[in-house]
Specification:
5 strands, 0% helix, two-stranded antiparallel sheet, mainly beta
């Protein structure tokens, strides 16, 4: 069975900072998911039997293909003390 190709590119950048010597540290993060904003369709394949155990004619066609999430960006700040 063939499904459409899944393409995804994730990217993370972070910076460690020393605040007030060794007592307090901070980490700032930027995480990006699906950076190129590709549309990736997913779905389950249809294999249906009738009441007599015979296969129905639409074998292997995806059931209601849905798109995965679009580009997402999240920011984070972590304090270590």
């Amino acid at each position: 069975m063939r499904m459409p190709v899944f393409r995804d590119l994730d990217f993370t950048v972070f910076k460690n900072l020393n605040l007030w010597g060794e007592k307090l540290k901070a980490q700032f993060r930027v995480e990006m998911f699906n950076v190129l904003n590709n549309t990736n369709l997913t779905g389950q394949l249809r294999i249906i039997f009738d009441g007599n155990g015979k296969l129905v004619s639409n074998i292997g066609k995806p059931l209601a293909p849905t798109a995965n999430s679009s580009r997402q960006i999240q920011l984070g700040l972590r304090l270590l003390f």
